[in-house]
Amino acid sequence: MRRLVSTGSPFEKTAGYSRAVVDGPWCFVSGTTGYDYATMQMPPGVEEQARNCLATIRAALEEGGFAMEDVVRAHYYVTDRAYVDRVFAIVGEAFGDIRPAATLVVCKLARPEMKIEIEVTALKRDREGG
């Protein structure tokens, strides 16, 4: 059963995407930037942006019936190599025990104020049996 998850961001309607799509035991969370969607403000620092990304991702996963522990794949996109170690410290806090397969890419993002974008894929498993 396919279900769409929204954060209510105006970008979702404008660009024609969902924050997440749940399909059976899978949850695919779209690339998520560091906006605080309650205020539609982008903090200036990559650390704050990374924390906002993770909070939005966590909320989308929970709305879809998933948890951070279900994440099996993560992609991190940063706009400057200088951000790599700072971002690793933050995503390491979130995923250190979960240890999804992950990739980090240094690239340009859609808007100049965006310093990081994170997308994840989650698979719901039996928590008892693995």
Note down, in words, how this protein is organized:
The chain has 130 residues and is α+β, with helices and mostly antiparallel strands. It has a single domain (2-123), classed as 60s Ribosomal Protein L30, Chain: A (2-Layer Sandwich). The protein is built from 3 helices and 6 strands; from the N terminus they run βαββαβαββ. The protein has a 6-stranded mixed beta sheet, with helices on one face. Strand 4 (71-78), helix 3 and strand 5 (101-106) form a beta-alpha-beta unit.
Mean pLDDT: 94
User: So what's the oligomer here?
Assistant: single chain
What general form does the structure show?
Answer: globular
Using only C-alpha atoms, the radius of gyration works out to 14 Å
Protein name: RidA family protein
Condensed summary:
This protein has 130 residues and is an alpha+beta fold. The protein has 3 helices and 6 strands, in the order βαββαβαββ.
Entry keywords:
YjgF/YER057c/UK114, RidA family protein, 60s Ribosomal Protein L30, Chain: A, 6-stranded mixed sheet, 130 residues, RutC-like_sf, globular
What topology does this entry show?
Blueprint: E1 2-5, H1 10-15, E2 20-23, E3 26-33, H2 46-63, E4 71-78, H3 84-95, E5 101-106, E6 116-123
Parallel strand pairs: 4-5
Antiparallel strand pairs: 1-2, 2-3, 3-6, 4-6
Helix pairs in contact: 2-3
Protein name: RidA family protein
Pfam families: Ribonuc_L-PSP
